Amino acid sequence: METRNFLGCFVWAAACVSATALIPIAGPFFSLLTPLPFLYYATKLGRYRGALLAGAVTLTIGVLAQLLSFTQGVLFIVEFCLLGLALAELYRRKFPVGLTVFLGTAFMLVVGFVFLTVLAHSRGMGPLQLVREYLQANIQQTFEAYRGSGGLEDGKAAEFQAYVKTLSDAISRIYVGMMVVGAGFMVWLNVILSRPILRMGGLAVPDFGPLDRWYAPDLLVWALIVPGFCLFLPWEGIKWWSVNVLIVMVAVYVFHGLSILLFFLNKYKVPSWVRAGIYALALLQQLFLALFALAGIFDQWADFRKIRKPVEA
Fold first, then answer.
1. Of all helices (H) and strands (E), which one includes residue 252?
2. pLDDT by residue (tens digit) across 278-298?
3. Cβ(104)–Cβ(87) below 8 Å
4. What is the pTM for the complete model shown?
């Protein structure tokens, strides 16, 4: 194992992991990029040497995190290391971008569920119950901190507490779908950013084809229609799953709509600074995300980009 590769991967990964604690507000975003160094060096060194380097770096960072009482960092580095190695393997198999993101997301969810199960078992509860209690505890902690800072009048404490309970109940209904969407976004982000990084390093870059021509499979629309009808059924369990499936499907069609937007930005050669403004506006204004989702849903009939082959009679 070359010392230069070890130090490069270690510094890169450690910087990403520690960003959560060191950088306010934007720190968690940078921590999402932790799989990139493992993906880069697994591509550079090959499957076995890359895995050996990733294991050594993960062990070193894990020990340091434990010594610094940053227990959360241990779980982060292990999970993100495995994701980076998994993405490197998917790149070698030359899967299309949609399947790469799907398999990467599925892998991350399985690994995360295993970790949650082990952690929850050690506390005598189920994994979903652990996540629910964690979210509720954080919401309650935020409420207590806000009340303790004097930002809440005594007469409105009960009203605000009722609001906190309503918010907690709403999150409990949708947190599974949000976890899936969050995992998918993280995998997609690392896939998109890894391509220019690999290219700068002179390494093999996966050929996903033009990303502005990607679209969700047509049959996937039934995963949107069926849960929508199930919301009208009287069974709470079915409603709970339907809501979470709908959240995931809407996110998929948001990305479908974004690919349509990218297609027309490329077609009309829109300058980079205008694109940056459009993307920022889309992130800040949720109405645009809804429009992207609708564009993605109706694209299979309208074919806005005129890229689908006509079906032969």
1. helix 236-267
2. 888 887 777 888 899 999 999
3. yes
4. 0.86
